[in-house]
Design a protein that fits this description.
about 80 residues; alpha+beta; Translation Initiation Factor IF3; 4 strands; about 25% helix
């Protein structure tokens, strides 16, 4: 994670199975301002496909998506 990115909301999605991590990001995107960033941490590998696909289909942006140990960490920016 880049140190210069301000995170507006942290979501702990560990233990949730597909498609719930993506659903929770979707439900919470309006809880951050336009330009705001959600940091989401999931354990389901399906999130690596689901969250970027959701972001692309909704016009939001995945700033980063990667694996840290056994967790998948996403930074999602609200665009609109």
């Amino acid at each position: 994670m880049s140190d210069d990115i301000k995170v507006d909301l942290e979501l702990d999605l560990k233990g949730l199975l597909c498609p719930l991590p993506m659903v929770r990001v979707s439900q919470n995107i309006t809880n951050v301002p336009v330009g705001g960033v959600i940091r989401a941490v999931a354990t389901d590998p399906g999130a690596m496909a689901d969250i970027p696909a959701w972001a692309q289909s909704t016009g939001n942006e995945v700033l980063s998506a990667g694996k840290e140990g056994s967790e998948f960490v996403f930074l999602v920016k609200r665009i609109k």
